[in-house]
Amino acid sequence: MKQRSNMRSVIGFAGNGQCGFTLLEVLVALVVLSVGLLGLSGLQTNSLRNNYDAFLRSQATVMTTDILDRMRANRVGALADEYDIAYSDEKPAAVVCSEAACNPSDVADRDVLAWLNQVGRLPNGEGYIDVNDEDIVEVGICWSETREASAACGEEDSTKRELITRTQL
User: Fold this and answer.
1) For 59-68, what is each residue's pLDDT tens digit?
2) Confidence (pLDDT) at 95
3) What contacts 152, CB < 8 A, 6 or more positions away?
């Protein structure tokens, strides 16, 4: 008998002590863990959405820089308001001419068409260009955060984003 009680104390069994976790403690730990994982998934979703918005803004910035460079290369056409286009205007017709035979107006039409095709890759993307009398150019690109159709560019809408750049030629 004495050997048996020594065996219990060596192994660590106590007659009225408690060993391990209860089922309730395990369930509480699972609830806390699942709430934490739900919070992490929400954080990941917001991170992906913000990353996509930043990507679209970067693309719009590159497109704005592209048309401004094209306008500086065709300064005569830009100062003659050949690049002016509003959000609601139709795209110019495709111009076919060789480099030597193109006049500034043809180059401007070709540049605006290429630029509007680029802007059209953004979700519901639209663009405008305005050159004023003081050689100040305003280029605007408008796009939607979602792929669904929403209000027209220039109207108040929480899903629309607009990038406007003003510079001198």
Assistant:
1) 999 999 999 9
2) 77
3) 87, 88
